[in-house]
Fold each of these.
Amino acid sequence: MSENALLVWMSAKAAGSWAQFRAAVEELRVGCGADDGADDDDVEERSFGLAVYQLERLNLQRLGHAEFFAPSMTTDWRVAPPTLAFTTHAAGVRGVLAGARSTVLLERIRAAGGTPEIVAAPDSPAVIRFVAEDETALRHVALRAGLNVQADAARAILSSLPNVAESSVRRPAEMPFGTGWKIDRFATRELRWRAATREDALMASAGLFRFSLRHQRHVLYCTAGRAFQVPVQVGKSLVLSRARRRRLMTYDSETSRLTLPAICRPPFLIERALIACSGLLPSYETRAAGGLLHYQDVPLPVAQLAAELLKQDLR
Amino acid sequence: MAAEWLGAARRVLLVLLRELVDGVRERVERKVRRAPEPRRHEEGEGSAATGGTTATTTTGPSPPDGTGANCGGEGATAGEVHADDGAESRDAGAARTEGGPNTSGSGEVAPSPDAAHAAPPVPEETSSGELPEEQATSATPTAAHAPASLDGQPEPANPNPTNATSATSRDDGSEAEPPVGGDENSASISPPVPDTRASAEEGPGSTNAHAKANGSPHASPPDDPPPSALPIPPPGVSSPAIAALDGDPLVDPHAERRPRKFRPAKQLPPIPRTQSTRSTGPREANRRAREQAFPIDVRVLFERGGFLRVSLLARRDCHVPPEISASGVDLVSLNDDWYEDVLPPDLGTLLERGIEWSARVNGKVVRWSLAGREVYVLARHNRLNGFINAPRLVLQEQHVVLCSASRLDGVERCLVAAGCSDVKKIDASLGTPAGWVALTNIVPTTPVPQPNDGDILDVLCPRADVEIVLEGGIRIDRSSWLHGFPPAIRLRGDAASAGAVHIDGKEATCDEAGHFTADGWDERGEHTVWCHGMLCSYQIGDGAEEWEPWDAYVWSLGEGDPGETRRPGICGMLVRPPPAAPPGARSITVPATNLILIGAVPGAIEFCSGRRDLRASTCAVFPPFDPVWALPSDLRRCDNRAARILLLRREPPATDAQAGRVVDWYEAILAASRKGLRIEPGDADAWSLWGLYKEVARARRRRRRRRP
C-alpha cells in the first residue's frame, strides 16, 4: 500500500522537489522492511545498499509514472500524465495504465466501463492493466475516462530513442584530477568493476571508468585520451559493444521472456519500453556469477529493437 | 626657555596620554555596551562556579602584571556573565520541562533556578531531553512543526544530486544516476557559533564597567575592582584582555568540543519570568542561536530476519549545505530537516560518551551534538521511518529502549513499573551496538512519578499527560490531507483520563484502534479537534486532477537535452510529436517498409522517413492526420510479391473535403494500384474499401485534367 500511497501523493502534488519526495517516502513509510510483510525473496534490491527513496524513484521512472531530474523540468520530479499504453500480444492487446493516479481517475475509468486487472507488485505501485481482443475497446475506455493513449507503446518509445553509440548521448568532460579519487574500470569480460588508475583511463582505447570521492561520483567513457560523461548503463552497453561482447541478451520465444545480466541493465528509457509490455518490473534471479533480469511478455520485435539500440545481438 | 619647552612638552605628553586613556576607555565601554544586561548578584554568584554555557571556553591566558586583580575578577566576571547564560538556559529549561511549545532546537536544558539553588550547580547543557520533535509530533500547533518540505512550495534547484552517487554499485546494474545538481554551497549559513568572541569581549571588569557607567542598580560582585581601577596599559603594550576586547578570539572557535553528558529534564513548575531575569532582545536570541548546535538523533530500524540497525541522523536546516563533512563524517542531506543515516563503527562508544561534530561553513562554525547517555528511549516518528530518540516513554505508545549492558537491570525494573510486559531483548548478535541491548515491544501503561534525581532512568517514567495526534493518511500540505486519505485522530498518553474528544463541535467516537471519528470528520474543509483543553486543526482538500504532458526527454537516453526539434519527445509512456511537427500531429508506429501514409481526406498524405541507424522493422511517425493506409516507401522499385498495402483504419474516403497535396495523394494510390500490390489484411471489406479510395483518386485525377 505504501507505494500506492506515494504515487497518489505525487499525483496530488503533480510536481515537487527531491527533498519533498524523500520526505514523503519517509512519512508514508514506503519500503519499510519488516513492516510491510513483503516476501523475503524480494530483497535483492534492498540488500544491495541503495536507499529506499532511490529505489522508489528508479522504479517509478521505469514504470513511466513520473520523471525525475529530466533536462526540461524546472522541478526535481513531475508525475507523468495518466496514459493507457497498448502492446499487441499474440493473445490480444494489453493496456497498462501509467502515470498519475487518483481515486477520482480510477472512478472515471470504472464509470467508462473499464474493468482493469490490478496486480500487486513489490516495490512498486499496483499494476493496473486491461486486456482486450483489439485496441478499439481500450481506446473507447481511455477516451471516456480522459486518459492519454499510446498505441504500440514499447515500439514507439524504442523508435524514439538513440542507440548507445550515438554521439549525442555523451558529452565531453574533464577527467577528475587530484589525489583521493577511487577509480574503477568496468571489465567487459568479468562484467564487474575493477580497480584502475588514471593512467589506465588516459591510455584506454574504449573504457568505462568510475571516479569516486566521498559523495561524488563521475562515470566517464574514456577513449583515445578523451573523456565523455555518459549515463552508466549507456556506458556499459557501449563498451560491451566495442569489446564485441554482443551476445548477452537472450530471448525465450515460448515464454516471451527477455533475459540479460543484471549488471547490464538497460538505460531506464529502454527499460521502460520493455516494462510497458507487461506493466511489471523485471524479476531478478540470483546467480553465482551475478544475477539476471527477466522481462516478461516482451514481443519478439520489441526485443529485437531493444537489442538494436543496445548494440547487442539477440540470442 | 628650557623650562618653557619642558612645560610645553609635559603638557603635550599629558594630552596624548589622556587621549590614549580616553580611547581605551571608550573601546572598553563600547564592548561593555554590547554585552548582555548584567544579572542579579545572587544568580551570578550562585552559578559562578558553574562555568556557564558552552561559550565559556574563553578563559584566555593570564594578563600581564598590572591586571592581576582583573585576572581574578576575570574569572568571576566571566563566570557571572556566563552564569547569566546559565540562568537563561535554566529558565528555558524549566519552560521546556513543562512541555511548553517554545522549545528550541539544541536541547540545552538546564535545571530550574530553584534546583540550582537547592542543589550543587550542575554542569552546562544538562539535557537534550525536550527535543523539538516532541512538539513536532504534537498536533497542538498546526503549522509550527509541520515540515516545510511538504508545503507544496517548489523549492529552488536542489543541489542534492549525489545521494544517488553515494549508492553502492550492485550487480543488477542499477546504480542510481547522479541527477543534475545545482551549486552545492549556494545557501547562506546562519551559524550556531559558540559565542567565544562575545565572551572574550566581555573581558575583565566589562560588566561592572557597564553597570557603573550606566548607573545600573545591579550590584557588582564584591571581588570585581571598580572601573576606575581599570588598568591602563602603557602605550605600546597590548593586553590580552584588550586584544580580546578588540574582538580577536582568544580560543579557536573551531576547536573540537568534548561531548556532553545527558541529563533528563526535571518536571518542575515554571518560574515566573521578570524583565531583569530574561533578556528578550534580538541580540540575546542571536547569541543563543549562535551557541546552539544541531541535534543528532538516534534511529532504530528493524530489518528482515529480526535484525535491527542503529544509526545516527544529524539535523539540518535550510542554511546548512545539503552535503557537508563534519569532523570527518560525510553528511548528505536526507530532506530539509535531516541528513542521511550515519553508521560509525564505534557507535556503542559514541552513544555512551556523546558526540560533537563541527564544520566550518563560510567562515562560521556549525556544530552537531548528541549528549551521551546509557539509556535511550525511542518512539515512532510521524516523518521518519523506524524509531527515533524521544525524551521519555509515553503512555500507550510503542517504544524501543537502547541501554548499555550495565544498566539493563535497572532499565528492566523501570519498565516493569511502567506496566511494560512481554519485553523482548535484542543483543549485538542481531545488530545492536556492542555493549548495548535493545528492548522492544515496550508499551507503557502506567504513569510513574519522576524522582527528579537526575538519573538517566528518569526517562523511563512516562507522564500522565495526553496530546492529540494526527497521523497516517496522505498529507499534501502542512496541515492538509488529501480527500479520501484523512489522518487518523488519536490521543497519545494517558488517554483514559483525557475525557471526551470533540471534532468540529461534535463528540467523537473511538474505535478499537483508538482512532476518533465524528460525522463529517473526513469531508473537505477545515476541521478542529478539541480534547482536554487542547485544540488542533486540520484540513481536507483535493489534489491535482489535471496533468499535462511535456517533452521530458528528446532524443535522449536519460542524459541532457541535445536540443533536437525534429525528434519526438517522451513523457512517461507517451511519445509526443517533435516540436517541428505540424499541428495536430500524433504518434503511430508503422513498418519501416511502408512509410507513405494516406488519410481519408484527399490530399492527406505524409512521406515519413525512417531511421538509418537501426535495423528496425517498425518506425515511429507523426502524421498530422489519422492515416488509413500505409503504402510501400518506394512504390516504383518495391517487390510486388513481398510488398503490401497496409490498412491501418477502416474509414471511407471523404469525397467533398480536400487538403494539402491532392495530386500526390491520388498519384500514390493509383501507383500502388497499378503495381497490383496485395492488401493486408486481405479480407473482402478491406478490398472494398481500397476500391473506394481508387475511385476517388481517379475522379480527382479526371477533375484535374479537365482544368484548363
Note: Residues 188 and 620 of chain B are 49 Å apart (CA to CA).
Amino acid sequence: MDGQKVRHHSIRASIEGLWIEYLYGDGWRLVEIVLGLQIIGRAIAILFFGGMTAGYYRTFPFVDHALEWGLVALGIGVARISGTIINGRWKRSPRLRWACGVAAFLYQGLHCFFFWQIGLSVIAIGYLLWTVLEGMAITRSTIDIARKRNEGCPTG
Amino acid sequence: MPDWLIALLNNPVAVTALGGAVFIPFFKMLADIFMRSGPKPPPSAYDVRDLPDHPLLVSTKVHLGEPELELLKDAAARSRRMERQLDRLIEKVDHVNDRLD
C-alpha cells in the first residue's frame, strides 16, 4: 500500500505493514516463489540425490515410485512459481495460482502428517511451517480472486 | 473407535485429504473475513489540492491553500491575457501583409 502515511515508526507499525502487505500488497508473491523453489529443491533432491531412500521413508505412500514423486513435486513447484508470476505480471489465471497453492498445501501437509506419525517431530515441524505458509498463500489467492471479481477486468 | 476409522486415520493420504477438505473451506472463510474490512484507503494527500471534493473539506482547502496557488493562478491569467494580445497583434500584422500584397 504505497503512499500510506505511517505516523509512528514502531515495531507495531512494521507488523501492521507486513500484515497489509500479506493481504493486499505485492510482497507476498515473493514468499510464494520461495515456497515453490523449496518444492523444486525437494524434487531435485528426490530425483538426483536420493531424497526418498532414507530408512524412515519405508512406510511413505507409494515410496517405490520415487520418479513419479519427484516429477509430481517438480510439477507442483514449477506450476506454483509460474502461477504466481502469471498472476502478478499479467494479472491472469488467479485460479491457477489458487489450485497450485492447494496442491502444494496438500503435498506439504502429507509430509507433515507422515513425519508426525512416525515420530520425527522436528522434520514434521519444518513441514508444518511450509504447510502454514501454503495455507496463507491459499487465503491470499482467494482474496485476489474475489478482488478481481469485484473490481472488473479492464483488459477483458 | 471403530477399526475402519483407526485404519483411515493411520493412512497419511486419507488424513491429508480430510485435512484439505477441512482447511481449504476454512481458508475461503478467512479470505471472506479479511475482504469484509473493505477497500484500501486512498493514498494520503500530501497537498491540499489532492483532498477529495467533500463538502466538509471545503473549509480545509480554503484555509490551508498555499500562497503559490494564487501566484500560479495570477501568472496563468496574465499569460492568457498576453496570448490574446499577441493574437490581436498578429491579426493586425497579417491584415497589413495582405494589404501590401
Note: Chain A has five helices and no strands.
Amino acid sequence: MLAVVMRVEWRSLRRERSFWLIAMALAAAIGFAALGTRLEIRAEAARAALIAQQAASHHSELAEQAHAIEQGAALRPSTDPTSPLAVGRELARPAQLPLAPLSPLAVGQRDVLPESVMLTTRARTVHASEGETLSPAERASGPFDLSFVLVFLLPLVIIATTFDLLSSER
Amino acid sequence: MIERRLLPLRALLRKELYEIVRDGRFRLVALTTLALLMVSLAFGLRQSTAVKAERAAAQAEADHHFVEQEDKNPHVAAHYGTYVFKPSGALSFVDPGVDPFVGTAVKLEAHRRNAAEGARASDATSLARIGQLSIASVLQLLMPLLVIGLGFSAWTAERERGTLRLLAVSGVSLVTLLTGKVLGIAGALATVLAPALAVGGLVALLFDPGLPVGRLLALVLSYAGYLGLCLALTLWVSARSSSSRGALVTLLGGWVLVALILPRALAGIAAQIAPLPSPAMIESNIRESLGTGVPGGPGREARVEAITAELLEREGFADAETLMDASLLSSLELQADAQFENEVLDFHHRSLHGAIARRESVLEWLSLLSPTLAMRSTSAALAGTDGAHHRHFSEASEAYRRSLIDMLNRELANAGGDDAWAFKVGRETWARAPRFAYERPSLGAVLRERAVSLGVLATWLVGAVALALAASRKVRVA
C-alpha cells in the first residue's frame, strides 16, 4: 500500500513544472557550493606552499650570510645571521593547520581564524595579526558551502515542494 | 477640485487599512516584528555602550601606561610602543557590520606596522556565523517578508473575490487603486516602524547625545527606499500572478534568492574574480622587501645611504658626520631606517589597498543582482561599521605611529648630546608625546565611497515602481 501511495505522489509531483525548477535550482546550488569550496581549498594549499617556500628561502639566505660573515665577508644585513637572538626573532617558521577530511563539506570558522601561524621566538601575542582578515564583508556574509545548502536551503526546498501535500488533496 | 480627486483615494486607503488591520495574522506578525526590533535595539545599545566604555578605558590605560613608563632611551621607548583602540562605529547599535570580524587594538611600535588584533569573531563559537540579531538584520531580512505578507494578495485577492471588477467599473483608475494599496500597506508598515524609530531615536540620543543625526537620517531614508522597492516588487508580482498562492510562492522564492542565496554567492564570485593575498603572505613580502628593498627599486643599503645623505644635508652636516653628536648621528640613522621602512610598508599597503578596492568594486557592481547586498553595504557604511571605516582607522593609526616614532627619534637627536644610547628621558617627555585623536570620515565622504551601492538601490527602486505602475495598468480584472 505504501509503495502505491509513493508511486501516486511521485507521479503527481513530477508533473509539476515548479518541482523540476526547484530541483534544478537545488542542484545548481550544490554544484556552486562544491565548486567554490574546492577552489578555496586549492587556493589555501597554494598559499601554504608559497609561504613554506619563502620561509625555506629566507632560512637558506641567512645560513649563507652567516657562513660568509664567518669567512670574513664585510656584510651588514638587516638581521645579524650570526646572532641566535636576532635570527630567532626574525626567522619565522610556518605552522599550517591541515585540512580535515570533511573540509569540503563546511568552511566553518576557517575563514575567520588564521590558517597558518608564523612562529618565531617572540611571544605568541605578537603574531595575533595573522587573524586579520582582508575581506571582512565576506566574512560577515558567510561562506556559500555545502553546509549552507543543506542547513538553510534544503529545508526551504522541502517546504516548497510539500507545503500543500495534504491541503491540496482536501 | 483636488478634494474631489482625493475622495476615492481616501476611501481606498481606509478600505486597505481596514482589511489589513482586521486580519489577525497582521496583528500577530506586526507585534512580533515590533518586539524583535525593540529587543535588537536594546541589545544593540547595550553592546555598543559597553564596547565604547571598554575601549575608552583601554585607551586611557594604554596612555597612562605610556606616560608612567620608567626612564629610558627614547628609541627604546619607541620599541616598547603603545596601543590604540578602534572606537566602535557611529551607529553600531543599528548595524554592527563587519566590526565583529575585524580587530580592535593596534600595537604601535618602531620598525613594524601591526594589523589590528582582537577580533570578537575569533573568540566566538561557530554559532556566531549563523548571524547576529540586529536592527539591520530585522530590516534587511524580516521586514521584506512582512511586506510580502501584506502585499502578495493585493491584486489577486480582489480578483478572486470579484471586487476588482466592481472597482474597475466604478470609474476608479487602476493607478489610483495602486496608489491606495501602496499607501495602505505603507501605513500598516508605519504602525510597526514608527514606534520603533521614535523610541529607538530617543533612547539612542539619551545614551549618546553626540549621535550623528545626519548619518541616522541617511540610514532611515535608505531603508525607506529599500522597503519601498520591496513593496513595489510585491505589487508587481501580485498584479502579474493568476492566483494568490502563485504570487506568494513567487515572492517567497524571490526573497530566498535575493536575500539569502545571492549575497553569499556573489561574495564568492567576487573572491574568485579579484583574489586577495593572505595576511601571512603580505607579512612575508614585507619582510623580504625590508631586507632587499622595494621591488624594482634600489637595494636596502643603497636606499638607506641615500636617505641618510639627504638627512645629513638637511641638518647641515653633509660629509661631516664626524663633527656630529653621537645622539644626532644615531637619530639620523634611525630616521633613515624608519623612512626606508615606511617606503616599503607604503609600497605593499598601496598594492594591497588597490586589490581590496578592486574586490569591493566587483562586489558593488555584482550587487545589481541583489538589492539586499547593496542595502547591506550602504547600511554598514552609514553606521560606520564597514571595511572602509576599518581601513580608515588603520591608516590613521599608522600616521599616528609615524608621528610618535618621529617625535621620539627627534628627542634623541635634539637632547641626546654625546650620550647616544645611554641617553635617557622620563615622564616629562612621555607626557609631551602626541595623543591619538581619531576622527571618523564625514557623511559626504561615506556617500561618495558608497555611490555605486546607492545607485543600485535607486535603480532598483525606480525600476520596481515602473514595473508596478505598468502592471497595474494592464492587470486582469476578472
Note: The helical segments of chain A are 2-14, 17-70, 84-90, 136-141, 146-162, 165-169.
